[in-house]
């Protein structure tokens, strides 16, 4: 199990360190684990000017799986686009062909009070947001900035999807739904955008191959509303790159905090990059305040998707549940008046819970 660890910027290294401890703990006694650390993001820029050095990309290519922290810090906007630490993640996703981004939003029962939604609305939340990760307005050409005849500047991007790109993510959605509650909601903006009209057509066509899965469609604005109103109605949500980015942060808050949301990004060969959905959180970086659970749960996804180790994945998830039941909280998931612990203490408690489990 050769794992590239790209911890990156801000709280990336803080949460990744705890995820690595969880991984080492659950695999204790195995000599299979090999961790290869490589710089990415701002850390890599300060070393050699490139946020995604070729050597890092090669390390990622050669690894069986990648554990990513976060990239991007304030001030990045002053750099040319390709040199921005945040862009390194996009380049990495593109280079590895990572097109299927699984973002499960699950409410741990102990955190019902931490959610911004009422317990009766949120109890039992278990949705899977499947975000297409390789196309859309994120990568569409043409893109850029130009000067209009009037002398005014104009920035522009292109929203685009090809049939094959939609088809492959749609298949992922229906196959995922088959392992779950057999419902797919496809989210688009087919009432306004041609690329999304094609999205709806293709998802509908692929859906005919999965008669056992119920398919519904929502426009993204209505989907945002419906998710807040009755989140339990959702099983698998499949959507494009941009809408998936936005809706997954929305879903994160339902679980209590963005610090709770893990993700897996897979390519066609099944290779995976695993990362928390949150960013580098410059406002709390360096203060041992970040919640490491999203990163720790990302390791559980890695064990399940990349190494077929469902039992070990469940042990990590159970350990997270155990410490939350015991009342342990980082500041982001503490309710008013509840005391909280730091990143390291939370990580240590989870590792201890893993180690003391009866197997
Ligand atoms: P962010 O996710 O970094 O932070 C948003 C808010 O959530 C902040 O208040 C932060 O303190 C809080 N937060 C995030 N993770 C947390 C955790 N684990 N525990 C507790 N609180 C947490 O998003 P942002 O502020 O919009 O972006 C900051 C930088 O990160 C930007 O440069 C952005 O481009 C980058 N970013 C990177 C990724 C990534 O690497 N995957 C994702 C999103 C944003
Ligand atoms: C995410 C992030 C990234 C995205 C940024 C940092 C490029 O917000 O992974 O959700 O927009 O995909
Ligand atoms: Mn995002």
Helix and strand topology:
Blueprint: E1 2-8, H1 12-26, E2 34-37, H2 42-48, H3 54-62, E3 65-70, H4 85-96, E4 100-106, H5 119-122, E5 126-132, E6 144-147, E7 153-156, H6 163-178, E8 183-188, H7 194-207, E9 214-219, H8 220-229, E10 236-239, H9 241-254, E11 262-266, E12 272-276, H10 293-305, H11 310-325, H12 343-355
Helix pairs in contact: 1-10, 1-12, 6-7, 8-9, 10-11, 11-12
This protein binds nicotinamide-adenine-dinucleotide (NAD), 3-isopropylmalic acid (IPM) and manganese (II) ion.
Q: Please, could you describe this protein's structure?
A:
With 359 residues, the chain is α/β, with parallel strands linked by helices. The protein has two domains: 1-98 and 267-359, Isopropylmalate Dehydrogenase (3-Layer(aba) Sandwich); 100-257, Isopropylmalate Dehydrogenase (3-Layer(aba) Sandwich), CATH 3.40.718. It is globular, with a radius of gyration of 20 Å. The strands form two sheets. It has a ten-stranded mixed sheet with strand order 2-1-3-12-11-4-5-10-8-9, with helices on both faces. Strands 6-7 form a two-stranded antiparallel ribbon. It has helices at 12-26, 42-48, 54-62, 85-96, 119-122, 163-178, 194-207, 220-229, 241-254, 293-305, 310-325, 343-355, and strands spanning 2-8, 34-37, 65-70, 100-106, 126-132, 144-147, 153-156, 183-188, 214-219, 236-239, 262-266, 272-276.
């Amino acid at each position: 199990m050769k794992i590239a660890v790209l911890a990156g910027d801000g709280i990336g290294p803080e949460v990744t360190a705890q995820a690595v401890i969880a991984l080492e703990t659950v695999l204790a006694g195995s000599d299979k684990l090999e961790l290869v650390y490589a710089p990415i993001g701002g850390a890599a820029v300060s070393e050699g000017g490139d946020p995604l050095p070729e050597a890092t990309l090669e390390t990622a290519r050669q690894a069986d799986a990648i554990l990513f922290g976060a990239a991007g810090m304030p001030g990045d906007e002053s750099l040319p686009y390709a040199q921005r630490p945040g862009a390194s993640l996009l380049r990495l996703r593109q280079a590895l062909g990572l097109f299927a981004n699984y973002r499960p939003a699950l409410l741990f029962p102990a955190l019902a009070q931490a959610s911004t939604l009422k317990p009766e609305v949120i109890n039992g939340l278990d949705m899977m947001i499947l975000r297409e990760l390789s196309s859309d307005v994120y990568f569409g050409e043409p893109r850029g900035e130009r000067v209009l005849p009037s002398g005014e500047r104009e920035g522009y991007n292109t929203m685009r999807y090809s049939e094959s790109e939609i088809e492959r993510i749609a298949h992922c959605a229906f196959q995922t739904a088959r392992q779950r509650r057999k419902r797919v909601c496809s989210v688009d903006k087919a009432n306004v955008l041609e690329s999304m009209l094609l999205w709806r057509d293709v998802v509908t066509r692929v859906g005919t191959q999965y008669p056992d899965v119920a398919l519904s469609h929502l426009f993204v604005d209505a989907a945002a509303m419906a998710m807040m109103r009755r989140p339990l109605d959702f099983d698998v949500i499949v959507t494009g790159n941009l809408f998936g980015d936005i809706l997954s942060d929305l879903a994160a808050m339902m679980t209590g905090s963005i610090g709770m949301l893990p993700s897996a990004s897979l390519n066609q060969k099944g290779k995976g990059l695993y990362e928390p959905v949150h960013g580098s959180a410059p406002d709390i970086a360096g203060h041992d305040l970040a919640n490491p659970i999203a990163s720790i749960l990302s390791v559980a996804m890695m064990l399940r998707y990349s190494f077929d180790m469902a039992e070990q994945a469940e042990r990590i998830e159970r350990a997270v549940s155990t410490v939350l039941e015991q009342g342990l909280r980082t500041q982001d998931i503490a309710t008013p008046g509840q005391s909280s612990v730091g990143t390291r203490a939370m990580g240590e408690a989870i590792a201890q819970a893993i180690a003391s489990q009866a197997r």
